[in-house]
Design brief:
With 294 residues, this protein is α/β, with parallel strands linked by helices. It has a single domain, classed as 5-stranded Propeller (L-arginine/glycine Amidinotransferase, Chain A), CATH 3.75.10. The protein is 30% helix and 23% strand. It is built from twelve helices and 17 strands. The strands form six sheets. The chain has a three-stranded mixed β-sheet, with helices on both faces.
Length: 294
Amino acid sequence: MRTNQVVMVRPASFGYNEKTAGSNVFQNDIEFDQTEIIDEFDRSVLALKECGIDVLVIEDTPSPVKPDAIFPNNWLQLRSDGTVVLFPMESLNRRIERRPEIIQKIASGYACRRLLDLSSKEKEGVFLEGTGSIVFDHYNKVGYACLSSRTNRNLAESYIKSIDYTPMVFSASSGGKEVYHTNVVLAVAEEFIVVCMEALDEVGKQIFNTSNKSILSISIDQMHNFAGNGLELADTKGESLFVLSERASRSLRSDQLRMIENYSSMCILPLDKIERVGGGSARCMIAENFLPLK
């Protein structure tokens, strides 16, 4: 199951988020100009549209300041049964990204039949940051979750089971620190999985060594260049379109790129500054929209 409908948030106050830097080593406090960020965002939207993706762009609001608003997939999931899911976020200044007007804008064109709000778990110190925390294999009905301060085992397992998927939970680390989100470690497509096997614990290695899909194993260095932060969408014919950033694609060897191209066409997004400052890449910026049209 893949879609060609996505939601993206055009940032108003993108920046280095000091509140999340402790758990996200991919962030960098470097100088940049907001015009660079908007340019990368707009060119990425255009690239997706040119590949046949229907992009609903929602404008961020300048106040309150939301440095990570460009990454909506961490708090929002739009399911094919009409359910809109709101997830519990670790950082206080990311919780304000859950704006009701975003849901209203989506609901103007799509059938939002039920709201499932898990954000009350924040009061318990329990977090599950959407499709950052869970990478779904919609073909095998599996939800992969890499444990971290942002991904609670019990909540991940219960949520995955609630949609009749099988949870597969493991840990991953780099440089002695846990990897903050599952979708940095791996990406799942219909025919293949991109995964950083070097980063996985023994449980994770066993999971992917027994997978029925082709495995594209990336290195720690490639993971830090966001080669694992890809997303499979559907092109205009419904066929596989794999989205990656320019930095991620540059980090891949020619044989690795050929493997992806054996199964998918590719859409490459210009995200260098967004990645370096924000610590997230192509998959983080895209909220898949499986909701039925009205």
